[in-house]
Amino acid sequence: MSTPSLREVIAYTRRLTPLHLELGIPASYAVDRKLAPHLEADEATLTLIGTNDEGRAIRVIPEAASAWTRMRASAALERITLIPISGFRSVARQAELIRAKLAKGDRLDDILRYVAAPGFSEHHTGRAIDIASPEHIDLDEDFERTVAFAWLRERAREFGFALSYPRGNDTGIGYEPWHWCWHRELPDAP
Ligand SMILES: [Zn+2]
Asked: Ligand 1 centroid vs 96 CA: distance in angstroms?
C-alpha cells in the first residue's frame, strides 16, 4: 500500500457521497472535524489476528499483523494480555454501524464523536486495532486506567503503533485510549 494519488482520493470521495447523503452526514464533515479520508485496504491481502465476541474475523494488513504479534508477545512476557477487539472495517460496514445507531434513535452528532463517517475511519486502512485487556474489556475511557494501557503508552511505538486520538486531540473524534494504529513511519508522539 503506497500513499494514494490525488485521483484515487477524489474517486474515493465521490464513491462516499451517496452514502453520506443517505446517512445525513454534512458536506462539511471532513473540514469541520479535521479528518482526512482513509482508503480501504485490499481485503484479499488481510491477515487474521483473532475473532471478536460475535465471531467476526479481526483482520489487518500483513505488516500490522506481524507488528501486532510481536507487540502482544512482548506484553505477554510482562504478564500483560492485549486483546484485539476490532481491526479492518469496510466502508459498507462503517455505514451499517451508523445506520444501526440511527435506527436505535441515537443522534448523528453523538454517533460521529466515536464512529467516523464512512471513508474516514482509520479502520478502513487495515492498520488500526482496537485493543482491550482482561482487566477492562469495554472500549471506553476507563481503559486508560489499566496496566495494559500504561504498557502500550510506554512500548507501542517500538512496534510501530501510535495512539490516534489522544485526550484533547484536535480532530472531531473523542479520546480513544483503545485505538492504536500501525504506521510505516510513526507520527510525532502526542
Ligand atoms: Zn478504533
From this structure: 16
